[in-house]
Amino acid sequence: MAADQGNRAMFVAGGTDLFPKLKRRQFDVDAVIGLDFLRTEIHRGSAETVVDAGVTLAAAAAHEQLGAEFRGYAQAAGLVSSPPLRNAGTIGGNLCVDTRCNYYDMTYEWRKAAGFCMKKDGDICLVALSSPRCWAVSSSDTAPMAIALGARVTLEGPDGERELPVAALYQDDGIDYLAKKPYEVVTALRLPASPGTRSAYVKLRRRGSIDFPIAGAAVAIELDGDVVTGCRIVLSAVASHPLEAHAAEEFLTGKRIDQDQVRETAEIAAKPAKPLDNADLSHFWRKRMVRVVVERALEEATINSGVSRVKLLGQ
């Protein structure tokens, strides 16, 4: 059905992001195709845990095994929006959530009065007037954590099934932000078993509920005692895709974890973040806070790994 309709149709699972945008006329479609048929189970295997795309965010956040083995992912699912919306929103939907911008996520009347942007109805980016591309930001909470954990995603379409790393699902473009074809459906998230990995997700937003992130940090870390043997750090809401902090990962790997190393790693991780004036609060302040959320995520992941709080805090 989606292949036949082309860009005149969209998929809907929980609808927590899609329906408000349809009301604001941010999408023009002739049909929405329901995904109620997607499976809603979590399967634990020896090599991986498979989370069906129809699993709600609330179910993922409360799942005992996910919380034990992939704590950061359960945290991220539990920090999306509010309890009622987590009861409807799905794992697959949060991976595919639309990019956001203060000039785009407004009513039709507001956007018309301000002058339409290139993401919908216009031809310029109102954040960066001379830019040839859209700078709307990726605001998924679960996507950065899935990338940090080395997860893969299963896609199905008329041409069959394929699998790719979650990181490969995204493109650095506010409009064309997904690498999947419009008629492909996310059917499962595959989290690889890694007993030695500890993870955490820290989200910054104006309020403690409802709001999308204005900065987020997903951390997955492997330790041998207090020596870091592997590390992945992925940022949310500071680019048009989940931003991997490769330089910070390389810096921390092989070092003993302590307060100074955590602070230096956070400083390096914040450097590639380029928040613009298209989300809540000042973009200068958001840039400064990227370091803070990375530092807190590293502290939470390592303290929960058995590294003493005294050593980490340098006391």
Output the strand order for the largest sheet.
3-4-7-5-6
Give helix % range: 25-40%
What best-fitting shape do the alpha-carbon axes yield? Answer: globular
N-to-C CA distance: 62 Å
Oligomerization: single chain
State the total count of DSSP E strands. 11
Give the strand content.
Answer: 15-25%
Mean pLDDT across residues: 94
Number of helices: 13
Low-confidence stretches: none
Q: Structural class, from secondary structure content?
A: alpha+beta
Q: What's the story with the biggest beta sheet?
A: 5 strands, antiparallel
The rounded Rg comes to 19 Å
Secondary-structure element string: HEHEEEHHHHHHHEEEEEEEHHHH
Q: What does this molecule look like?
A:
The chain has 315 residues and is α+β, with helices and mostly antiparallel strands. 31% of the residues lie in helices and 21% in strands. The chain contains 13 helices and eleven strands. It has helices at 2-5, 18-23, 57-62, 64-69, 71-78, 83-86, 91-95, 108-114, 142-148, 246-252, 259-270, 283-303, 309-312; strands spanning 9-12, 31-34, 42-44, 48-52, 152-157, 160-165, 185-192, 197-204, 215-224, 227-236, 243-244. The protein has a five-stranded antiparallel sheet. Helix 10 (246-252) packs antiparallel against helix 11 and helix 11 runs antiparallel to helix 12 (283-303). The protein starts with a helix and ends with a helix. The model has no long low-confidence stretch (mean pLDDT 94).
